[in-house]
Please model this.
Amino acid sequence: MTVTGVAGRRPRHVPQSELRSGTRYWVASLVSMMRFDYCRVRQWMPMMILIQTMTGAGMALLYGFFYPHVTEMRALYITTGAPTLALIPLGFVMVPGTVADQKLEGTFDYIWSLPSPRSAQAASAFLLYTLIALPGSVLALVVAAWRYDVHLSISPLLVPAVVLCALMATTVGYGMALAISNPVVTNVVANALMFVVLLFSPIVFPASQLPAWLAEVHYVLPFYNMAVVIRAGLTSGVVANVATSFAVLAAWTVAGCAATAWVVGRRR
Model:
């Protein structure tokens, strides 16, 4: 490309590599990719939010039937676990499923061929699905709090907790979908993961109710720690070691981004 110079000087030739680099170009690419991604998923957004709400609120209502009497503490655990139950399906099931469908349809390679940095494309997916994850988790919390008549003690800690949980779920789910080359295997892993999480993760009950070895496993997995940080933002004096849970979630977020960067860097 040729850029016109000042009077009396020859025009300067600017290589395409210079035009497609730098912070301004990256930010412009991110904005363009977010528009592109939004247009692709906007028709499915109401369904995604509905599935989230039904999963979070529905599971919260279902767990109430497991107890002959729902005590105040049980109701508090179930209610504050509802947002976590709503975040998990989007990040760990719907995001990998979307990537798997793109691979099967042949649109995945087209998206990666667009003239924008692949880091901006990945960041667009992270941000968009993180924003989509928030309404469903809020609705699930509202329904559960209404059902069990729970009075919450909301603190400013809730905002970073929910944002980090949504971002972590999206990055790990996206990284998993990229790292697994076979889309059929991706769907199998995502659905199996959902089954294990809903049945065996201490999200709506204390981890102390699990066998000691299983509780130790969950201390390093993201699901229990998601419930801890969100519960810490909704209650006072119920959970401990919140900083440790934040650190575990941050580590999983970095791992998801690293998996994405590794796959992106290897693609031609």
About this structure: Residues 125 and 196 are 25 Å apart (CA to CA).
